[in-house]
Design brief:
Layout (H helix, E strand, L loop, with lengths): L11 H10 L7 H15 L7 H17 L8 E5 L7 H7 L4 E5 L3 H13 L6 E4 L15 E6 L5 H8 L3 E8 L11 E9 L6 E8 L1
Parallel strand pairs: 1-2, 1-4, 2-3, 4-5
Antiparallel strand pairs: 5-7, 6-7
Helix pairs in contact: 1-3, 3-4
Length: 209
């Protein structure tokens, strides 16, 4: 995944985060930040209390995935419970070959995702689905995908078998711990990190068949 073109950020919090992680800031991240900030002021889109916290919510996971070059080739990705669109929208901005389906049951957040994708020129590569995914029978149009992720909708142990029915590679985001996978999945790679503003431990884990 190409990390994008280095540029002077119009949002200091975004530029600072990218510098801390060690990537060049991809084009469009500052614009996405501005759209989310505007909606946040009117709809409580996130729990961020500062620009720094909003930048971490939107970009930290994506920046670490970009640094580790986790997205390979012309990948397809499904984000279940996409919420504000992180890390998927930042990844789409960083990699013009990536295509993604963002599944979100809440109408206001689906409206935000569609607005952001349109403003960022991502509509041709991002599909928004306003729906819930049934854990007992997970179905998403476009499956199977190359990658499935869910940041906060399911507990990690519950998400792995769900994601395995949707994609070949499943990403799990945790509070710093590994997850024992079900039979048929193995831990392929991981990154452990601390949230810069709080020091809270976090992990991004990738499991494959």
């Amino acid at each position: 995944m190409a990390p994008g073109t280095r540029q002077m950020s119009t949002v200091p919090a975004v530029g600072k985060l990218c510098a801390e992680v060690g990537i060049a800031e991809p084009r469009g991240w500052d614009t996405y930040f501005g759209i989310a900030q505007s909606w946040d002021a009117r709809t409580d889109l996130t729990a961020a209390r500062s620009d720094t916290e909003l930048a971490e919510i939107l970009f930290l996971d994506a920046a670490l995935v970009i640094r580790g070059d986790w997205v390979e080739g012309r990948a397809t990705l499904v984000d279940v419970g996409a919420g504000v669109g992180a890390p998927t929208i930042p990844l789409l901005l960083a990699d013009a070959s990536l295509r993604a389906t963002l599944v979100e049951p809440r109408r206001i957040r689906t409206a935000f995702l569609r607005t952001a994708a349109g403003a960022l020129g991502l509509s041709s590569r991002a599909t928004m689905l306003e729906q819930r995914v049934d854990p007992a029978n997970p179905r998403v149009d476009g499956a199977p995908f190359r990658i499935a992720l869910s940041r906060a909708t399911f507990a990690p142990n519950d998400w792995l078998p769900i994601g395995a029915q949707l994609a070949d590679e499943i990403w799990v985001l945790t509070a710093g711990a590994d997850v024992d996978p079900p039979a048929g999945l193995t831990l392929a790679r991981r990154v452990h990190y601390a949230v810069p503003s709080s020091g809270a431990p976090r992990s991004i884990l990738s499991y494959r068949r």
